[in-house]
Structures are given as structure tokens and as C-alpha cells.
Amino acid sequence: MNRFTKDIDTVDNLIGDSLRTLTGTGSQIIAAVILISIIMPYFLVVAFFIIICYAYAAYFYRASARELKRLDAILRSSLYSHFSESLSGLTTIRAYGELERFLAENVELVDVENRAYWLTVVNQRWLGMRLDFLGVLLTLAVALLTVVTRFTISPGQTGVVLSFILTLQQSFVWTARQVAEVENNMNAVERVVHYAKELEQEAPHEIEDSPVPSNWPSEGKVVMKDVVMRYRPELSPVLKGLSMSISPGEKIGVVGR
Predict the structure, then answer these.
(1) Could you name the Gene Ontology cellular component terms for this entry (predicted)?
(2) CATH topology for the 1-198 domain
């Protein structure tokens, strides 16, 4: 359910919007750097070291943000699964008077999922504080350069440089966040592709080599001969050589698991 709701919504809507924002902010950075470097060539030296710091902070953030996003998606799946199962078995839950227990389990799953989401928000603020600090350093360095070169550039050019450096500072922050956001949202693509291509498919509904007669089944007879079944390939069998025959019209009760 999580893959066909949240993940599909991320693939259809959020990834495209994040890429659009990333392209826009990246274009602003390129334009601002070109303009400022034309007026003040020494800016490139300062920008080089600041960009290295930006890249290191973004790289450090992406490693944890990607795993936190994956953990958030897994825990959300458990929450959706429990909620769906509770709705489908609501009559049974009410009949046995287990409403309080299922409600407590749902609240606990919501709290656990919120832990991962809260860590994601805290992680974003960690990145934001460091990027803002680097932006302040970049603005300070450009302001000092304008003071040093006040006799070689006009006051109008100084105003243009200071104006664009503020825009560049905001664009750097948004670009680093959008790069991480695009990578985090690709987790939804990974989960959908896993469902589409990596899960083992069930047998076909109809086998062409041995077609079923049109009047089948002519009677409600079931014969099982030496049936061995297990829940997963790596687990031990739970049915070990079961053989039984159920006659047409016979009533059978299956007790237990």
C-alpha cells in the first residue's frame, strides 16, 4: 500500500518538482558566479574554498539522510499494513474485545515512524546551520574584497556584487538541499523498481501446454498427495508430506494454523 500511494506520488510529483528547483538554483549560482568574477576576479579564489566546504557538508549529510529516508519508508509500510489489517478484521477485533490493544499498537507504530521522520527533520536543520554559516563567511569575504578594491571598482559595481552575493548565498543552500532531496526521493524509485522487477512472480493463470477442460471442475473433489509447503524458501517445511482426499459435498473443518 505504501508503494502504491506515497512512493508513486513521490515518483510522479515530488521528483520532478525537486529537479526543476535544482535546475533553477543551479542556473542562478552559475550566473551569479560569472557576474561577480567579471567584476571581481579574486572572488573565484574565495569561492573555490567555500564550495569545497559546501560539498563536504552536503556529502556528509547525504550519507545519513538517504538511510533515514529509507528507514522512514520501511516504518511507514509497517504502519500502513497494521492499519489495513485492522480495518479488514474490524468485526473480529470487536467480537473479541481487542479494540484497546489494536489502538495501542497503532499509536506505538505511529510513534516509531515519527522517530524516523523527526530524525530526518533534525538532520536537515544540521545541514541548514552549517550551510548558513558558510554563506555568512562567503558574504563576509566578498564584503572585505569590495573594501580592498574600492578604488578599482565603482560604487555601482560594489552594490551589484553585494546584491548578487546574497542571492548566491541562498542559492548555495537551496542547491545543497535539493541535491539531497532528489537523492532521497530516488529511494521511492528504488522501492517501486524492486516491486516491478525483482520480486518472484507467481505461476501463470493458464498453462498453454496443458489447457484446462471447459467444464472443469465438474465436481468439488480435492485430492492432495504428499504435499510439502513452507512460508519462505529459507524456512523449514510446515506441511510435510500431507496426503488427503475430500469428496464432493463433504464438509471439512480446518482447525489451527
Answers:
(1) membrane
(2) ABC transporter transmembrane region fold (1.20.1560)
Find the helix or strand (DSSP H, E) in which 227 lies.
Answer: strand 222-229
Residue 67 grid coordinates: 538511510
- pTM, two decimals, is 0.57
Question: What 3-state DSSP class applies to 4?
Answer: helix
> Which residue's entry shows cell 473433489?
221
Whole-angstrom distance between the N-terminal and C-terminal Cα of the chain? 26
Give the pLDDT of the chain (257 residues) as one tens digit per residue. Answer: 777 888 888 888 888 888 888 888 888 888 888 888 888 888 888 888 888 888 888 888 877 887 887 888 888 888 888 888 888 888 888 888 888 999 999 999 999 888 888 888 888 888 888 888 888 888 888 888 888 887 788 888 888 888 888 888 888 878 877 887 887 788 888 888 888 888 887 877 777 777 888 888 888 889 999 999 999 889 999 999 999 999 998 888 888 76
For residue 228, the one-letter residue type is V
Q: What is the CA radius of gyration of the chain?
A: 31
CA angle 64, 126, 163 (to 5 degrees): 125
Closest CA to 180 of 138, 128, 255: 128
In Å, how far from its chain's centre is CA 177?
15
Burial classification of residue 104, based on how many CB atoms lie within 10 Å of its CB (0-12 exposed, 13-18 middle, 19 or more buried): exposed
Residues 6+ apart with CB under 8 A from 139: 165, 166, 169
Residue ranges per domain, the chain?
A: 1-198
> Does residue 217 have a cis peptide bond before it, meaning omega lies within 30 degrees of 0?
yes
